[in-house]
Amino acid sequence: METTINLLNNKIKISTELNGKLNGLKKSNWGADKSQHHTINVTHDNHTIAFDFWASKAQPYVRTAQDLLDAFQCLLSDAGYGRNIYEDFCNDLGYDIYDDEGNINSNSKNIHSQCSKLYKKFNLLNFECDVHDMYNELCDKYNIL
């Protein structure tokens, strides 16, 4: 399954294997089933990144172009927050900066770290625009809420 879109003068190909060929590679640590896992590939100017995406239990498969756009929206959203420093990330999203003992909250820090990794991956695609601008364009152009 693949789709090609144009956002802010960037031609972007988004793809995944259909019918679960790449599903089940990973189990989440929050209870999502392995059948919900997909590896989504994003290509721009001969640069490709891959990221993990877990679909919902109600619709565990990525089968349509809209499903791919929804997965790409998740990448852009997480990457956008990943560019923030840890404290701003926590304040923006309501995560605890510190645990009850006054130490850095390891759960919040891990989530921030994963988002930061996605932001670094996003930058490997060499877009000439900001991640938030691309997110807004995607949502506006494809009526994604």
Please summarize what this structure is:
The chain is α+β, with helices and mostly antiparallel strands. 39% of the residues lie in helices and 19% in strands.
List keywords for this structure.
4 helices, alpha+beta, single chain, 19% strand, 145 residues, 4-stranded antiparallel beta sheet
Description:
The structure is a single chain. By secondary structure, the protein is α+β, with helices and mostly antiparallel strands. The chain has one domain (2-141). The protein is built from 4 helices and 4 strands. It has helices at 65-82, 86-93, 106-124, 131-141; strands at 2-7, 10-15, 37-44, 47-54. 22% of the residues are buried.
Count of helical regions: 4
Main sheet, how many strands, which sense, barrel? 4 strands, antiparallel
Spans of at least 5 consecutive residues with low confidence: none
**Any idea what the radius of gyration is?**
16 Å
- For the biggest β-sheet, the strand order reads 1-2-3-4
Mean pLDDT: 92
**Number of self-contained structural domains:** 1
Structural class: alpha+beta
Question: What is the first-to-last residue Cα distance?
Answer: 22 Å
Helix content: 25-40%
Number of strands: 4
SSE order, one letter for each helix or strand: EEEEHHHH
Instruction: Give the CA-based shape.
Output: globular
Percent range for β-strand residues? 15-25%
